[in-house]
Design a protein that fits this description.
Blueprint (H helix, E strand, L loop, with lengths): L8 E3 L3 E2 L9 H4 L54 E3 L18 E3 L13 E5 L5 E3 L1 H4 L5 E8 L17 H5 L2 E10 H8 L7 E6 L6 E5 H6 L2 E6 L2 E2 L9 E3 L12 E7 L6 H4 L4 E2 L5 E2 L8 E6 L10 E10 L5 E7 L7 E2 L1 E2 L9 E9 L4 E9 L8 H8 L12 E4 L5 E4 L2
Parallel strand pairs: 5-14
Antiparallel strand pairs: 1-2, 3-4, 5-6, 7-8, 8-11, 9-10, 9-14, 11-12, 11-13, 15-16, 17-18, 18-22, 19-20, 19-23, 21-22, 23-24, 24-25
Bound molecules: ligand MTE and molybdenum atom (MO).
Length: 421
């Protein structure tokens, strides 16, 4: 039996209407301030009694936040230093932009140290005029800025484990980040080179020791592909492709070739190692699904999530991120009763295409055990699937593009854990 719904409830077990997050409703969710205000003049804290520190050349987070860092950093097999991944600590962030220093990293052979003065990008193959660019020439082309996510197609793979692993939000889902990317539309460079009528694909190659190579349909290249030079206002970080990377909005992260050194226009895909032996999904009928470009619609509650304990019953803000490689997020629904009833969450504006979208819902926790879940729907009408439905559709051998619904169990002592419902 669902709980009786009060006028402000939107679903069972304490989920409240999203209008609480509109201005007029803000007062209704207030009242959690720690102390009643005292006259301010009475006391002066230690940090008010002497002048503070001087300016700094390049700012860093507060030292009190020093525990916040990339997850899995430094974990790699002997002899493979720099090959592997580190993840964004999603549960400690809010809004949608990932600070550049916390953007997830996925390197197949470490971070190359590229001298910007020696950097070159070659465009050749089925073009009328093969072209070579250096950084100085690249920055003279028209640039655009877009705030969009990048997600490794191996993200959230831990949910495929038979039993729910005792992992946190960033550990499971932290191979997604969002940045403001600025760069030159690839279409402009391709137009200058003059793609011939046989050109259908391009092969992009990285300037790292792995020489990561992927085939990209020319339609994507002419749609919204960028040669990205700036990330969150500053030059790309070395870990994310300095001095230039391919950025393919909404596509699996592997295709956004970092340290981009060469683009060859071709008639057919090149069938590189990273689109044949890797980044393909074995289907129940024994065939392999390849060229799975778009990242599917997905969401996860970042708070509450494991490691963030609920200290007492009462009012909480459920908050999380939702995204889709197919466009904008249309709606996010939240459940506080293990998926039996759902309430629509409020979305932070602006909702951007192929970007993370922050959602919020007010929840009155009665102190009882339950599971919290979120479910995203994108503008293409795709709905994030439940775990059972995902497994049925994709079979047991897939390991990329996992977008099933995440459930967080809240115990009566306030501990939050990964569960399957
Ligand atoms: N040259 C090169 N490009 C690369 C990779 C790489 O190892 N080398 N890794 C790919 C993978 S698998 C992903 S998910 C993204 C990760 O980008 P990031 O490290 O900036 O988060 O870059 C892609 N581009
Ligand atoms: Mo990846």
């Amino acid at each position: 039996m669902p709980n009786p719904l009060t006028p402000l409830s939107a679903a069972a077990n304490g989920l409240m209407h999203r209008r609480l997050f509109l201005k007029a409703g803000a007062g209704l969710v207030g009242g959690s301030a720690l102390l009643t205000a005292q006259p301010a003049a009475a006391t002066r804290a230690a940090w008010m009694k002497a002048p503070g520190r001087p300016m700094s050349r390049y700012g860093a987070p507060s030292e009190y936040e020093s525990s916040v860092g990339r997850i899995g950093f430094g974990v790699s097999q002997p002899g493979t230093t720099g090959s592997g991944a580190s993840r964004t600590p999603l549960e400690y962030l809010n809004g949608v932009i990932t600070p550049s220093g916390l953007h997830f990293e996925r390197h197949h052979s470490g971070v190359p140290d590229i001298d910007p003065d020696q950097y070159q990008l070659l465009i050749h193959g089925l073009v009328e005029r093969p072209l070579k660019f250096n950084l100085e020439s690249l920055v003279r082309y028209p640039m655009v800025t877009r705030t969009q996510f990048l997600e490794c197609s191996g993200n959230s793979r831990a949910l495929l484990n038979r039993t729910a692993a005792p992992l946190g939000c960033g550990e499971i889902h932290g191979l997604v980040s969002a940045s403001e990317w600025t760069g030159v539309p690839l279409s402009i460079l391709l137009d200058e080179a003059g793609v011939t009528t046989q050109g259908r694909w391009l092969v992009a190659e990285g300037g790292d020791a792995a020489m990561m190579s992927r085939s990209v349909p020319l339609a994507k290249a002419f749609d919204d592909a960028l040669v990205a030079l700036y990330q969150n206002g500053e030059r790309l970080r070395p870990e994310n492709g300095y001095p230039a990377r391919l950025f393919l909005p909404g596509y699996e992260g592997n295709m956004s070739i970092k340290w981009l050194r060469r683009i060859a226009v071709t008639a057919r895909p090149a069938m590189t190692r990273d689109e044949t032996s890797k980044y393909t999904d074995l289907q129940p009928d024994g065939t392999a699904r390849m060229f799975t470009f778009d990242m599917a619609v997905k969401s996860v509650i970042t708070s509450p999530s494991p490691g963030l304990v609920l200290h007492q019953p009462g009012l909480y803000q459920i908050s999380g991120i939702a995204w889709s490689g197919r466009g904008k997020i249309a709606r996010v629904e939240v459940s506080a009763d293990s998926g039996k009833s759902w309430a629509e969450a409020a979305l932070d504006e602006p909702v951007m295409s192929k970007c993370l979208t922050r959602f919020r819902a007010a929840w009155r926790w009665d102190g009882g055990p339950t599971s919290l879940m979120s479910r995203a729907i994108d503008e293409a009408g795709k709905v994030q699937p439940a775990r059972a439905a995902y497994l049925e559709d994709n079979g047991p051998s897939t390991s990329y593009h996992c977008n099933m619904i995440q459930a967080w169990h809240v115990a009566s002592n306030g501990d939050v854990t990964n569960v399957y419902v």
